[in-house]
Amino acid sequence: MVESFDTIIIGLGAMGSSTAYHLAKAGQRVLGLDRFTPPHPFGSSHGQTRIIREAYFEHPSYVPLVQRAYALWAELEERSGRPLFVKTGGLMIGPPDGVVFAGAKRSAEPHGLAHEVLTAEEVRRRFPALQPTEDMMAIAEPRAGILFPEACIAAHLELARKQGAKLALEEPVVRWKASKEDVRVFTAHSEFGASRLVLTAGAWLNSLVPELNLPLRVERQVLFWFKPIANSAAFGVDRCPIHIWQFDRDHFFYGFPDLGNGVKVARHHEGETSAPDSVRREVSRNEVQEMSGLLQRFIPDAAGPLLESTVCLYTNTPDTHFLIDAHPEFSQVLIVSPCSGHGFKFSSAIGELVADLIRKGETRYDLRLFKNRFGTAHPTPRELLDPSNG
Question: Quick one: which H or E segment has residue 219?
Fold first, then answer.
């Protein structure tokens, strides 16, 4: 006999774990499948910390979704008893006409978000760990902070299981097929049936829908932790907000305060294209030196010895906006995955909206930005992060 469920979820990282939680909470019979045991270090949702921010420079349409995510992270923290979030405030730093500064301002103003506009001198005076150049300005937002991704995923999965979800881990999916009546999912050992299927496999998504030829690019990203060489107190959570930088016009990096294991920083995009099962996991000396050079320019007191590094993955759409849509041939199959390196913060709310789509056929959010819009000309690198192209 084939074991049957209301919904099967393939991939239990950020999006899949949240979807499993919200569906199980609503009383659905849920099966979650994952090729690893999440939280794990092979995909996009590890590395100790993730940024959550409200004045969203990528596009103003994200703001209502991230506002709901804040509420749901607080609810999850209370229900699970795990610490999941630390409020630090945030700085979006760059040239006044750049993507980061102008985009954050473009989101903050129409949504009436609390924010300040700071000159480079004001940033240096108020946050001495950070040293922007005179041609930069910053948007300061008070609600920004840090999520702990491994703990968030573990909390979603723990509560999903308590609410009746079945989680089959270390169980790679071989294939799936859909008919008018149902969906069948095949692993190396089992076959399962369901009314609905949700694909949240991140970097492995294309292997599940090869017939769609989606233009997704898996990008290797390196995360670094450096030991400050001076003024270590300036990197404390109470004195150093999360910070995102646009420098040299079209290049980006971001950083965190020191939570006790060094100052974490990373480039945003510009990583090499890879395949999820053959990613170069070693971090080269040149990569460390390049990141150290950025610190010397903009956060010089943090440019000490490397303490740790790790590799994670972005799964990028051509325009860097999310993909949340039904399979074009099978309406009972939802694709909810490629988030282009900025999706984790939204995962609590995306799981909820997917549960609404499955149970009610609708959601409160405007998802037009996230529909399957592929087949059009791909944007240039600068257009990828320019919110005016959204």
Answer: strand 217-226
